[in-house]
Design goal:
There is one protein chain. This protein is mostly helical and 175 residues long. 71% of the residues lie in helices and 0% in strands. The protein has 6 helices and no strands. The termini are far apart.
Length: 175
């Protein structure tokens, strides 16, 4: 049990390091990937909600340490996304197919960006008394690129997990 916990903690640190140091330094399109969000969706889908919640809180704290935004922004956003995607996974999308993970990743990316914007807006409205409500000219295009990048990573991770897992192999029912 201790070894599993230690490995999990090391993987949390590794995921944070990959997101902060490696992915953010990639050129143009690839730097839009939010690997933390996609990995959380995969943990939620292939694992359990409790496991994904622990990962969301721990990685959120680590990301907040390296972020210039308000402390807690990543924690609240990741946990909020996790609760909403868990609700969708349990009540609306009942299977664990590629289409389910693509749709969950798409919705999680949109919800994550909305939560970040809303929390930033509320924080600056309460404490700084001024919030410039304007978007750069390429804001929506950048958001679309982030969503597409996350969906592509979701495709890749789903096929990697499916390749190594015997549990999710497609089977045909024979009479």
């Amino acid at each position: 049990m201790y070894i599993k916990s230690i490995i999990s903690i090391l993987l949390m640190f590794l995921l944070t390091i990959i997101q902060v140091a490696f992915i953010s330094g990639l050129p143009e399109w690839f730097s839009n990937i939010n690997a933390v969000l996609v990995v959380l969706i995969m943990i939620l889908g292939f694992g359990s909600f409790g496991n994904a919640l622990v990962w969301a809180i721990a990685v959120g704290v680590l990301l907040d340490m390296y972020s210039f935004s308000t402390f807690g922004l990543n924690i609240v956003s990741l946990v909020g996304v996790l609760f909403l995607t868990n609700f969708l996974l349990k009540n609306v999308l009942t299977n664990r197919s590629l289409y389910t993970f693509v749709l969950l990743t798409l919705l999680a990316s949109v919800i994550f960006e909305l939560l970040n914007f809303i929390i930033t807006y509320v924080y600056t409205s309460l404490f700084r008394q001024s919030f410039l409500f304007s978007f750069p000219s390429n804001f929506w295009f950048d958001e679309l690129l982030k969503i597409i990048a996350n969906v592509v990573l979701s495709f890749v991770l789903f096929y990697i997990i499916s390749y190594f897992s015997k549990r999710f192999k497609p089977m045909f029912l024979i009479r």
